[in-house]
Amino acid sequence: MLRLSIFLIGLFLIVPSFATSMTDDPILTMIKVDQLEIIDIGNRNDMAWDLQGWIGQDLNKLWLKTEGESVNSEIEEAEVQLLYSRAVAPYWDAQIGWRHDSQPSPTRDWLVFGIQGLAPYFFETDIAFFISDSGNIGLRTQFEYELMLSQKWILSPELEANIFTKSDAVAGTGEGLSDMSLGLRLRYELKREFAPYIGIEWNKRFGKTADFAREENEHISNFHWVMGVRVWF
User: Fold this and answer.
1) Is the CB of residue 126 less than 8 Å from the CB of residue 91?
2) Is the pTM higher than 0.90?
3) pLDDT tens figures, 164-208
4) Phi/psi at 73 (nearest 5 deg)?
């Protein structure tokens, strides 16, 4: 029922706009791999990914986002989001849609309300509320800034935090501030569409999430090196 409702909302909002402006506003596409990286270089060589793409016009777009992590060659976390996005201000889009977590199991589905864009001082911002069918509400905030060291070298500090209203022992997430990550990545743009990078990342779990991690003999806080590539087309 949740998925059907989101699909109908998307059709209701997006189809009329596409139909009336097809000739003057062509349909465009973009795919952007923000992170495709190896974690803990030279250790277990775990992998992580974060990519997104869209198809649409200036005002209306359909977005696909996915991110996750592989540990010891097994996918430990994976999610995908399908969103309808509408421009509401210069550099800002409001988004609504569906999020599906395939890992950890059992799977979970969420209704998504979010806003994505460029904040003052050029901070790339992505803020989303998630509502699950069990009544859990989550808030995710993501910020990134690009510091141009030269025409080719770019340093990118990043911040992500997750907050939940309920604990989910199976997923290992607790109520309140669940986890936070801080990253710093230095990339070299061989060309604008292709840039290898190296970086460091610090992750920390809080509250009940930290308690769940201790029960599974997992780290509460960790620091690791990453190496990867950023691509868009």
Assistant:
1) no
2) no
3) 999 999 889 999 999 999 999 999 999 999 999 999 999 999 999
4) 70, 15
